[in-house]
Every structure is written in C-alpha cells, then in structure tokens.
Specification:
The chain has helices at about 1-25, 35-50, 70-85, 110-120, 140, and strands at about 55-65, 90-95, 95-105, 125-135. It is α+β, with helices and mostly antiparallel strands. A 4-stranded antiparallel β-sheet has the order 2-3-1-4, with helices on one face. Mean pLDDT is about 80; it is low at about 140-154.
Length: about 150
C-alpha cells in the first residue's frame, strides 16, 4: 500500500513537472499604448521641471524684532553658515520680525534629527512647516536615529 501511494505521488509529480512549463511558455504579455501617451508623459515631465519648491520642513533658529534685529539675524546666519557648511539658511522678514530658518527637509523626522544635532548651539530652535527648495539631497547629513518624538510644532 505504501509503495502504491509513493508511486502515485511520484507519477503526479512527473506529470506536473512536464505540464507546468508548457503553461508558462504559452503566456505572453502584450502592451498596447495609445498614440497620445508619449506626448502626455513629455508634458508631465516638462511641467514638473518647472516646480522648484515643495511643502516640507525647516528648523527655525532665530526670531526677533527691534532696532538691532536685522544685524542680529545676519550675525546668526553668518555663524550658522560658517559652522554648518552646505546647509542652506534663509533670512526672511515678516513684519515686524526677522527670522532665520535652516535646511530643506522633506520629512519632519529629518528636521528633528538635524535640530538635535544643532540643539547645543541653538537651544531655542524648533521645527516648522515651510515651502522648501528642491535641491541636492543632504539626507546623509540629516539622517539620525531618533528614539523619542517631540511634540509637533507647525
């Protein structure tokens, strides 16, 4: 009985091995494109090449108003640029305040990681949602291991 079952299983295995490859070879994929697809793809690529900014995150390291706030902002930006080469910094004025925001981070996680790296120099810094420039990827510099998440500030 055991020999009979074994021979039946062996026979079924041989049949499957012989039949199954014929099903695989018989299948064929045929892709058909409409005439306008290439043109639409080209237009889509051209439109996206014009986009220079996206929604992202920055770290705000300075915020002040007053008589000497512009000079203080420029000094803060200069010190930041000399210590953190290659990280973009932006001085903006929104009445009545000057502010310095740094980095172009695609995720809040990256911005928080960078904030932790500069926290000793800028203890009042915080992450803020902003329009960021599409620029070279600084992800190697920004990536850090983050265990605790800070409360979100927007």
């Amino acid at each position: 009985m055991k020999l009979f079952c074994t021979s039946i299983l062996y026979s079924m295995f041989l049949i499957l091995v012989w039949i199954f490859p014929s099903f695989i070879k018989a299948q064929e994929i045929n892709v058909q494109k409409e005439a306008g697809i290439k043109e639409l793809t080209t237009k889509y690529i051209q439109a996206n090449e014009k986009v220079k900014s996206i929604s992202g995150f920055r770290v705000q390291i300075f915020f002040d108003s007053g008589n000497n706030s512009r000079n203080a902002a420029e000094t803060t930006q200069s010190k930041f640029r000399s210590k953190y080469h290659g990280i973009p910094s932006y001085l903006t004025f929104r009445e009545p305040n000057f502010r310095i925001r740094v980095g172009d981070f695609r995720t809040r996680h990256q911005a928080r990681g960078f904030l932790r790296q500069i926290q000793a120099d800028y203890p009042n810094g915080f992450v803020i949602k902003d329009e960021i420039n599409l620029s070279p990827d600084f992800s190697n510099f920004y990536d850090t291991n983050i265990e605790n998440e800070d409360p979100e500030i927007e």
